[in-house]
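Thread: quick sanity check before group meeting

JM: Hey all, I'm pulling together slides for Thursday and realized we never actually wrote out the predicted structure for the chain we discussed last week. Dropping the sequence here so it's in one place. If anyone has concerns about the input, flag it before I start.
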Amino acid sequence: MKKNRYLLCLLLCGLMLYFAVPRLSIHADGLQGIFSLAWLAFALMVIAGNLTGLLYSPKRQIQKPQAGRLKKKSRSFL
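JM (edit): ok, ran it. Output follows.
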């Protein structure tokens, strides 16, 4: 379930980058340049965080019951 969310966030971030990068002016002076660099830095952080969550999520291990061995119940009478 979480992998779907990570993938959706990556696709949405890619879509926003697709529309925003041609309109951002990195070489501009003043607040426009600072805003462009900050926006791109935050977008790269979002991509890095979602990729980390997608690639390094713990995997579930299915435990198989062992048919050959039976557990003996131990009783203690105190």
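AS: nice. The longest helix spans residues 31-55. The radius of gyration is 25 Å.
JM: adding both to the slides.
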